[in-house]
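Issue: ligand-bound run for glutamine - logging full I/O for the record.

Environment: standard queue, default settings, no custom constraints.

Inputs:
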Amino acid sequence: MARGYQGESGDVKALAMKKWFNTNYHYIVPEIEDDTKITLNADKLFHEYFEAKRLGIETKPVVIGAFTMLKLIRYTGKKTAGDFAEAIIRAYQELLAKCNEEQVEWLQFDEPSLVKDLGAEDIELFHRIYDNILSDAGKCRVLLQTYFGDVRDIYADLIRMPFAAIGLDFIEGRQTCELIEKFGFPQDKILFAGLVNGKNIWRNHYEKTLGTVADLKKKGISVVLSTSCSLLHVPYTLKHETKLSQEFTSYFAFAEEKLAELKELGQLADQDNYQESEVYQKNKALFAGERDCHNEEVTKRLSGVIEKDYIRLPKRSERQALQKKELKLPEFPTTTIGSFPQTKDVKANRSAFRRGEISKEEYVAFNKKKIADCVKWQEEIGLDVLVHGEYERNDMVEYFGEALGGFLFTEKAWVQSYGTRCVKPPIIWGDVYRDKPITVEWSVYAQSQTDKIMKGMLTGPVTILNWSFPREDISIKESISQIALAIRDEVLDLEANGIRMIQIDEAALREKLPLRRSDWYDEYLDFAIPAFRLTHSGVKADTQIHTHMCYSEFTDIIPAIDDMDADVITFEASRSDLQILDALRENHFETEVGPGVYDIHSPRVPSVEEMVQALRLMLTKIEPEKLWVNPDCGLKTRGVPETDASLETW
Ligand code: GLN
Ligand code: ZN
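Outputs:
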């Protein structure tokens, strides 16, 4: 289901994959057909529970709650959530009954969907679910856990429902404290207070946290200290970071260290005069001290940015006409998103260089050979716009993080992205700046190998920020703007060195869109989109700017995406239905588009017919002069055989 299948028994596409709320973690979207039967199968859960129990450890099983489950399922037939509610509720009731039978002490239901905007129908559905599940709760105590925001639409209801405990996020939940203040919290329930950030790597500010705990206790609330969300989103441990000095690591807490923090905070919260304890004083001193992270040049430059720096001239329609003439592209130009398979030899070359086993010259020569071969092959199969293949990059964000000032990078701080794929997000430690060109040499070399157009390849400021661990001492807006200026320099250097088409990837722009609609613009788009414009507003009219976004779920923010003012955008469209295209037309989308014609997240090779069919369908909705032909995303995670076969197919 995750990878698709192509073999003797048939040809099946993989299930859709989506980002888990506002994180970079992906989940496989469950599909239910009209005749799907829902029954409980909790073997895995109980095996794990008993495995721990045999070691003398009582654990708290965690399952996704029925409400979030119903919201995230994709219903492929005529039926919808309401039609399956009863069967799903029954399965959860059985689960709880089984927990009672096995004398499980706590069962946790995760309901992150509660932090989104909820309508009357949602609230009704939620009641229906839990009024039933909790009707004979037994001894097993149920924790209703929420995270990634506050539950303002349903808080007043929640506290009246028979949960033994409710988990609230105090980090991303901007209104959490306010809600407790306004509606109170019942004395017969326990509050699992998510006060330690489960998404970022900075140490907890004990003074602040303990202040909040004290406030809660004063209200007579029983508090359990907890992380704001699962620790899936942070790296495992600091223990193996041998290269970062104490000056840096003393500010960080990965998952293991967060557990230690929880323990310390718990102990401190129980002491009347915790202010005097050594642990507390040490933490206080850390935050009181000046962190070496400021760069005056950066501050000065940023304050000099004016309104006009955000506007590219002439206007897009004029540019597009000019570019058609100058770049001499055929109708339906073909291109790829940038990376080619990161084969074993590519990785081996990089790690040999890192370990000092080969010289810089040898490292570069190997990559140049790779680039030359890749360019030659793209020419052979007749692609129109070529790429260099990104062989020099470990990862589209880490690579830039390593090259820019202000970032720190780790050795082993991996975070899961999907399946066995992990990323190692850099840490934004201080003000960000670029002191020398990063990609120019590679792009110029690649261009020298062909007369066709070579697309320069950069990662955009929003994505660099979203896939890094951000600072907490300055605003996200400020950090993004600093990165935008650094990328702007790179864009202008590429142009000055003969690169006429530049793609600035914003793969992660959509994923950090606030979960609540009311926050979309104020809290995000109002600065993220201008930051993107700042990166490319300085180029000439006939330099074509591309952007790429993974996933096409931007139907609701199409005007904002058009406002990035790129000339072309490519995005994922093969795993989702093509509704987005209707929305583009309705919104008079000006940017040229390349909705991916095949899915690169699975090794399956698409057939010619299916791609032709996809393109025909696209043409019913997009003007022919605006349509590009490309895969869904970069090819770095794929193997060579399927990549070659897929690209040759078209
Ligand atoms: N240019 C990048 C690549 O091709 C884009 C990757 C992405 O969108 N995640 O790998
Ligand atoms: Zn992508």
